[in-house]
Amino acid sequence: MFQDTSSLAAMAEALSQSPDYRVLRRLVARLPFTPSSDQETKTAVILDTETTGLDAQRNEIIELGMVKFDYTPNGNIVGVRDTFSAFNEPIDPIPADITDLTGISDELVAGHRIDAVAVEKFVDDAVLIIAHHSQFDRGFAERYWPVFAQKAWACSATEIEWRKYGFEGAKLGYLLHGAGYFHQAHRAVDDCNALLEILAFELPTIGRPALALLLENARKRTVRVWAEQSPFELKNRLKTRGYRWSDGSDGRPRSWFVDVCEAALDDEIAFLKTEIYLRDVEPRTQTLTAFTRFSARV
After folding, report:
1. Predicted confidence band of residue 1 (pLDDT cuts 50, 70, 90)
2. Nearest CA to 169 among 184, 181, 158?
3. What whole-number distance in Å separates Cα of residue 293 and Cα of residue 135?
4. Does 267 have pLDDT greater than 60?
5. Is 298 a domain residue?
6. What CATH number did the domain enclosing 79 receive?
7. Is 100 exposed, middle or buried (0-12, 13-18, 19+ CB in 10 A)?
8. Residue 262 has pLDDT above 90, yes or no
9. Looking at 186, 218, 250, which one is the last position of a domain?
10. What is the spatial distance between Cα 60 and Cα 46, in angstroms, rounded to a whole number?
């Protein structure tokens, strides 16, 4: 026999007060609210894509999910404006491993197309696009809908040092559990709703919501440093320091690169001079902002 909801909620609250238990609650999506003119707010969109693979230039989007919400300048989430969810039938069949991961099959997306006009209208008033791995999602979004190339982006996976604030890692599931929830993973709009609650979660060591910290970090300029023609035998040293490999297929240099804050640029160049090239060098650098960071165009 099932107990009534209020009784279960009371039990969960009692357990959560004990250091011997951790309670996870099923995530329930927020209902849309009516904005008020009494409060200064801005609008952002959380975006997630499900795709047929990892290559933004060759693979295809099969699902797009978005949640539009309002927030105050100090990073408090006011409420959800609207949600967007749509399937897209790819040219090629969906790989079996993608179906196993997402539950999205060829039959589910058959005949579906994502309305480009509807996408542009949905994000038109957003001053920021947030994704959990913007390096991935921005590449796909810009390829399909050019409007995203004109937007500022933030990455909730890389622009917050989650371990510093008591989380086990930056995976969405880890963060959601740390915030006290569980959900249906790997469906686009569900992941967007999950990320919204994570961003609303107050980080205990600073007493502010995670969104406030994300906004603060996204506003900072960073510098991309290219270690072109670096010795092959030192690639592991570069990887250990956080460098990533660009194979040159997207028009960027075929080289290792790393993104650092402006204050760390001199130290990074010193590292390349003393530990990689063993001589005086002036590596190629690019200054990035939220409008260019994570974009395949850069």
Report:
1. very low
2. 158
3. 8
4. yes
5. no
6. 3.30.420.10
7. exposed
8. yes
9. 218
10. 20
